[in-house]
Amino acid sequence: MLALQDKPPLAAIALLYKGAFGSLWAVQDCLIKAVPIFLCSLGVAIAFRLQIWNIGAEGQYALGAIGATWVALQFPDLPWFIILPGMLVMASIAGGIWGLIPALLKLHMRANEIIVTLMFNYLAILFLDYLVYGPWKDPISFGFPMTREFSASAIVGKIGNTSLNWGLILCIFSGLAVWIFFRYTRLGYELKASGENIRAAKYAGLPYNRLVMLVMISSGALAGWAGFLEASATINRLQPSIIVGYGYTAIVVAWLARLNPISIGIASFLLAGLRVGLENLQLELQVPSAFGGIMEGLILLTVLASGFFIDYRIKLRKRS
Amino acid sequence: MNLELVLPLLAAAVQSGTPILYATLGEIFTEKSGILNLGVEGIMTLGALAAFVTAKLSGSPILGFLMGGFAGAFLASMHGLVCLGFQGNQVVSGLALTIFGVGLADYLGTPFIGQLAPGFIPIQIPILSKIPLLGSVFFIHDSLVYTSYLIPPIMWAFFRYTRWGLGMRAVGECPQAASAGGLRIIAYRWAGVLVGGYLIGLGGAYLSLAYTHLWTNGLSAGRGWIAVALVIFAFWHPGRAIVGAYLFGGVMAFQLRLQATGTHIPSSLLLMLPYALTVIVLVFSSWRGQGTEAPAALAINIEPSE
């Protein structure tokens, strides 16, 4: 593919690798990018477990960023131990509501959640555009669409003298929580069971509707956290460039990891690596960033196809 | 509101509804065979690029249009390979197809951004365009719009009266019975995927050859997903797809005009209109429907037999 455009393919792979994992700085960059991917993907995976096709992580992430930004802009003078939890809570509420609406429409109006969550992505992103071009625009931004920079207390701090922020710890905790939830709690078991066979679960008296709502709220809230961390820790304000397709990468990650929280951690790191490496490739060889989409799509298609060899065993037989 | 304002708007609705119509019809065709292809957005974008590049290099828009379809069928064949060959999850495979198709089109299309290609120009049909009201809405377009008028009746007749059409419906409703009846179900599903992909690709080709005549990234802008929603709105009937497609074409055209007149409504809020309408239309048609209009075996893979 690269060779088609006169770019050396093998050197490109080396550059990709070097850019992503070649230095301590690069690995830190991967971890920073892995945080939002991980949180979105965790949310997506919870929903997919119940066979609810939540494609809306992108929009829930945007709403989370909007919710957190609202708190940061309204109460800039509060101390950090009040404002940061406030932002986290608002991000969960905003993201959670953005997930709950499609769930309600699905349960009460039989509306297909794939399309509704997808349309909600477009709506959320346009709403974000509206806010940063209009009411929330920074008066001293020289016309750039962005909000004021957050006050210092509204910014999630860095761990020690690395460039990593405390969001990473939040990730580890939420990942563990989800893992424990599925493995050791009754509700987690009910959820898995309902995902395997909806009709059987309903027949067994499991609260399917409540499970769907719960799943979509937590799925949206997790993506909302990702939006909060990205706005607060990485960019320190809200601007349109916060939308970079993490919500879609999250779907690739979730499926790659077969919906397992621990594997999601590894897969998010790898796909974050792909993104960071591609940025390097872009600088060195002027490869368009859309190459990432091609890689992600191909990875996902390959994983889907190879699932066949896990689920079925090929038996060679003589033709009779 | 007077007629001089309304008629051009309706004509514009037909024009901007046409790519959605092609895509919706393609998706109906695929879904009738029991395969859910959520890659419409990716297929349209890649079809648009293939059509654009072919028309630019060969100078022939017709060749470009046909190539757009082939590119669509090619991308759809990957969905077929994953779902029919390897029993992959149809929902996720379709999403992968969209990520891949949009990425590929953006990647290959980067050198062409902002360039123009020869496209289709409107032809007034001599007698029909003189019909009062209807003429100036339906018969002042390019030849691709006229082609799209022919597809719904053909599809309707195909599914209702022909042996293959009935076979395909049987495969979409109950593949086990169809298989017992001696139909080659995998072949029917492949046909559904490829022909549907071809039609969706044509919808993309319309975007770059007749709607804009130039290439930009993200040309499809969610039209593929709107098409997926319209399949549900249309209850899988080709005829109702026309209504839905022109409704959305109308909203898009209306929204563009409103922006052009320089209203005080911010453009990002206006751009929300088609997406919000999609949700509303989807919710109401799902609510009103019985839930039994979809092919019964939609998105269910055929397990390989012993």
In short:
Chain A has twelve helices and no strands.
Describe this structure in words.
The complex is a heterodimer of chains A (320) and B (306). Helices cover 71% and strands 0% of the residues of chain A. Chain A is built from twelve helices and no strands. Chain A is mostly helical and 320 residues long. Chain A has one domain: ABC transporter involved in vitamin B12 uptake, BtuC. Chain B contains twelve helices and no strands. Chain B has helices spanning 3-32, 40-58, 61-85, 90-109, 134-138, 143-161, 163-173, 175-180, 185-212, 223-233, 238-260, 267-288. In chain B, helix 7 (163-173) crosses helix 9 (185-212) and helix 10 (223-233) packs across helix 11 (238-260). Chain B is globular.
Biggest interface, chains and residues, is: A-B, 44 and 50 residues
Topology, number of strands of chain A? 0
Instruction: Please give the share of residues in helix of chain B.
Output: over 70%
Low-confidence stretches of chain B are none
Task: Name the shape of chain B in a single word.
Answer: globular
Largest sheet of chain B: none
What's the domain count of chain A?
A: 1
- CATH class placement of chain A: Mainly Alpha
Query: Mean pLDDT of chain B, as a whole number?
Result: 79
Offer a few descriptive terms.
heterodimer, A: mainly alpha, 71% helix, B: 306 residues, mainly alpha, ABC transporter involved in vitamin B12 uptake, BtuC, 12 helices
Write the layout of secondary structure elements.
The complex is a heterodimer of chains A (320) and B (306).
Chain A lengths: L8 H13 L2 H26 L7 H18 L5 H30 L3 H21 L33 H18 L1 H11 L1 H6 L4 H28 L10 H11 L4 H25 L5 H21 L9
Chain B lengths: L2 H30 L7 H19 L2 H25 L4 H20 L24 H5 L4 H19 L1 H11 L1 H6 L4 H28 L10 H11 L4 H23 L6 H22 L18
Helix pairs in contact in B: 1-6, 1-9, 1-10, 1-11, 2-3, 2-4, 2-9, 2-10, 3-4, 3-9, 6-7, 6-11, 7-9, 10-11, 10-12, 11-12
